[in-house]
Amino acid sequence: MEAAIFGQALRENLRLRRFLPWVIVGLVPFGFASQWPTFQPDAMKIDQYANVSSIFVFHILALTSAILTSTILTQEVENKTIVYLLTRPVPRWKLLVFRYLACSLVVALLGIIDILFTSAGVYGVLGSNPLLFRDIAAVIVGAFAYGAFFMFIGLLFNRAMIVCLLFAFGWETAVPNMPGQMCYLSINSYLQAIAQHPSAGQNKVLGQLTSSAGDNTLSSNTGYMAMILFAIFLVALGSWWFTAFEYLPREDAE
Asked: In degrees rounded to 5, what are phi and psi of residue 91?
């Protein structure tokens, strides 16, 4: 039964009309990566890639997760199918966890596609990118960390999408650039620690865009550990929450 829940959620998120638009979005960082020398002619390739990746890929990752993962439960409530979902002879926590895993896996896959597009825009399809595997690791960890957070937000709020988008666009853009230890309250800061991108140097505008203007001194190991524990904690808390509270169809969803 668990495999069926996971498979159904995976197929739902891999439907062409749902998956293909996000693949097309990945062409945005590819376009900027291939044209970056126009904006910064003296930049080395590793800097070109790091800048485009930080500005676009990691923010697209947060946006993708916000839109896909926050609907794990809210879509069922709004479509009034939550009753049928909960009548399955499966513990509630399993319903939530396996749907979360499937959705986060799809978000990670889309993030990897965006990374490959961006790398191809700078280095070419067969070019050697020294940051590639670190970025892929950061994207995978980020997909599950963002997924756990947005899933939990979806359990707490009826209009979860609004909260998730504000977090993905507002919080994750502003907080990493704040002075002091405020950057530690952003998932993006930990992902940047995992990726270990080169510094933007004295370019303040570029530092703001790449979320590297703050005092982020996190190590790669700390980034991994913090995000893994963060995801496990929120998935466990969300599983308890979903089991302890009732969820009914929304009558105002139409």
From this structure: -55, 145
Q: What is the pLDDT of residues 145-172, one digit of tens each?
A: 999 999 999 888 877 888 999 999 889 9
* Of the candidates 98, 111, 121, 152, the residue with the CA atom closest to the CA atom of residue 48: 121
* pLDDT exceeds cutoff 70 at 201: no
SS3 of residue 117 by DSSP: helix
Neighbours of 129 (CB within 10 A): 20
Copy the structure tokens of residue 195. 């990726």
Q: How many Å apart are CA 205 and CA 188, to the nearest integer?
A: 18
| Residues 35-71: tens digit of each pLDDT | 888 887 787 899 899 999 998 999 999 999 999 988 7
Average pLDDT value for residue range 232-242: 95
Max Cα–Cα distance, the chain, nearest Å: 62
Give the C-alpha separation, 52 to 54, whole Å.
Answer: 6
Helix ranges (DSSP H) in the chain: 2-13, 16-25, 27-39, 45-52, 58-69, 71-78, 82-86, 92-123, 132-156, 160-166, 172-174, 187-195, 204-209, 220-244
Give the whole-angstrom CA distance, residue 244 versus residue 91. 12
For residue 249, pLDDT beyond 70? no
> Residue with structure tokens 């570029």?
206
Of 217, 65, 200, whose CA–CA distance to 145 is shortest?
65
